[in-house]
Amino acid sequence: MAEGRQAGVARASELVIDGAGDGHGVGMSQDGALGYAEHGWSYTAILSHYYTGTAIGQAPPNTVVRVLLRGGVKRIALETYVRGVVAAEVSASWAMAALQAQAVASRTYAITAHAGGSKFDVYPDDRSQVYLGKAAETSRTNAAVAATAGQIVTYGGQPAITYFFAGSGGRTESVQNSFLGSTPEPWLVGVADPYDMGPLHRWTVTMTFGSAASRLSGLVNGLFKGIEVLERGSSPRIVSAYVLGSKGRTLVSGPELAARLGLYDTWAYFSVKDSHGLRPEPDTSGPATATPALAAQPAEVSGSGGSAATPAAQPANVSGEDGSTAALAPAQPAQPAGVNGQGGVSAG
Question: Contact 65/110 with Cβ under 8 angstroms?
Fold first, then answer.
């Protein structure tokens, strides 16, 4: 009887996941860029915030983007391509500075990401960035592309790959903590994102232990017992964790864990809910492990596509990853010497 009662409790257990953000967390948060634009920031200030230490340069003339479409690889002029991307990636109703920041980020990504190696540059979907062609174009998004014509993000005079994603939850992540195995890049470091208030700024996912075990098939040794987080990045997105089983534990990366469980982001904290109540799962990643470190955001900032109820003054600076501050004056233009060879990871 005792064994039966214990099994019944196990079947009744639920895994509760409190999280933040929507996407991989690297580079520019689209919801955050909207928030900054609604607070009066220019597109150059927005870009220099998300891509640390960068400047604005010019794309090589007559650049063509090779897009893998259903009918094969199509060569599209850079500005034509960017018009078909901006309208697909963000809402035309957004503040103009946010649309302009997206235009420059998308243009830069197009010339630095080579998803297909020598065969093509980008996919037309979120494996690269979404491209819907002329049918998606609007007058406002086209105006944003025209206002920034040819402009790209550069670091040290070279085009700098500009990853972006939907929403940060309040802080972006350094590239090596999200795209595991990648080389750290000085412009792709985690930064504060106080005006990100998108629809998935905060979220909670609940599933039964049975459902979690099924999704984690191959990683569970014995009966599924829960999740133990080992390491987090600066945001604090999960870098590594253990899947706990009755016969042992299995190491898993944060991105694989989130993908298996169907989470919106790797910024997640785990608890178990059963007949005894709700208790946090073990977390040895840092000091703030008892409860989700999901800090409150400024109340006056609205969600995606909205307007701020009480517009705030543009901050003069923001805190860096080490607690220091850096001025956000528009970067001085720098001319690129050529295109770097990074790419292959989804930007959208």
Answer: yes
HSE value, Cβ hemisphere, 13 Å, CA-based, for 58 = 5
Say if residue 186 is preceded by a cis peptide, omega within 30 of 0: no
User: Each residue of 48-89: pLDDT tens digit?
Assistant: 999 999 999 999 999 999 999 999 999 999 999 999 999 999
Q: Please state, in angstroms and rounded to a whole number, the distance separating the CA atoms of residues 152 and 106.
A: 9
Residue 90: both structure tokens together: 């963000």
Residue among 142, 139, 47 nearest 98 (CA): 47
User: What whole-number distance in Å separates Cα of residue 75 and Cα of residue 70?
Assistant: 13
pLDDT, tens only, 292-347: 444 433 333 333 333 222 223 333 333 333 333 232 223 322 222 222 233 333 44
- The pTM (predicted TM-score) of the whole model is 0.81
